[in-house]
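Obj: model holo form, ligand = 6-O-phosphono-beta-D-galactopyranose.
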Amino acid sequence: MKKVFPKDFLWGAAASAPQTEGASTIDGKAPTIWDHWFETEPERFWGEIGPAETSRFYEMYPEEIDNMKKINMNSYRTSISWARLLPDGKTVNPKAKDFYNRVIDKQLAEGIEPLMNLFHFDMPMLMQEKGGWESREVVEAYQFYAETCFELFGDRVKKWFTFNEPIVVVECGYLYQFHYPCVVDMKRAVQVAFNTALASAKAIKSYHEAKLDGQIGIILNLTPSYPRSEDKEDVAAANLVDLLFNRSFLDPAVKGTYPQELIDFIQAKDLMPTYGESDLTCIAENTIDILGVNYYQPRRIQKRETPVDPNEAIMPEHFYENYEWPERVMNPHRGWEIYPKGIYDIAVNIKENYGNIPWYISENGMGVEGEEKFLKDGMIQDDYRIEFVGDHLSYLHQAIEEGANCFGYHMWTFADCWSWLNTYKNRYGYYQVDLADKAARHVKKSGLWMSQVMKENTLE
Ligand code: BGP
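Output (holo structure tokens):
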């Protein structure tokens, strides 16, 4: 049956400045934590390509945007690099201003709406040295950066996002050692989470005060957390995971308040962050207009069964365990669960508990390691990705039919891009990037298939 999507639905793909631009040492850009880490500890990374190169969007953007148009995208979500735009934290780098102007203007000329995010894990090293998200000075510096972006580009960019997946910065940077600064400390992690939510609210305040003709929001990776059973303790464990990893940002962003159960938990564990009353007012008064949802996989949770060593420093997983749902379908090429219904459950949650705020899928996608093996007749035959996107779109369509206020779908990603510790291990794009051939692009089967869906606004 044909599934027609709403009029003016945004069809696109998502990426970020640090994962696509490259050119990280030229034209005045200052280093980020990723540049620093790749230089000082390259052994942590898969492969030899670092953030200085990536897929060369900085130089290839005109061709790249032409390719977007070829597959009928009408929107593209990426980010601005703080370290490129304000290398010393204060002064606009004219070359960066010029670059983003050219990208935005080219997108608009091709009918591709720019959805612009301000922070995608790419803390400038200068700001990290001041304490990163633990520091109030950095919160203020970020607000200045946001204001600068609104002033320079706010006449043409109508959809802004303050952060991509802020909980990932908390988890990977301050609990699990996947991102610099590699801290393992739950109290510091809570402070980082609070300061990020505050920084987001401050940027939203500045945006609304500037009275620009557009909307602003935040991008969150929502992970529906399903309990193993109806057993009270399994349900409580899954609820706690939902509180810690979803509602810790979703509630302040949409409702302007933190869930009382989360405050109780944080207080009971002596993890309260430092804050002032005016911070809470700022969060309460500056909620989002629109929400970006990144969805890859759910969490399957059960009560904690293995005892915790009392001498061990507190960590979230002391209060729950992940379990392997016997019916789960795994992506054999990346190791993540594939559960398309999760997108529907997220939509229902937003409708029932978050006032049906306008939202869109800002990322959803399927990573594949060693994707070259699917190359045949000059094209990656990624039927698995077609199935993946089709199944997710089916559930999304059903949710929209039932009243979900979803205005777009963006796959991760447009052209295979660089990724954090994995660099180019997992490929995600509608376009294949051939690194051996100056990052040449070749459309994949999924890109061609999707070009029809986007053109017709219909899933067949
Ligand atoms: C999201 C991030 C993206 C991207 C994606 C795929 O969490 O917002 O930046 O990297 O995940 O993940 P990975 O590249 O680790 O496979």
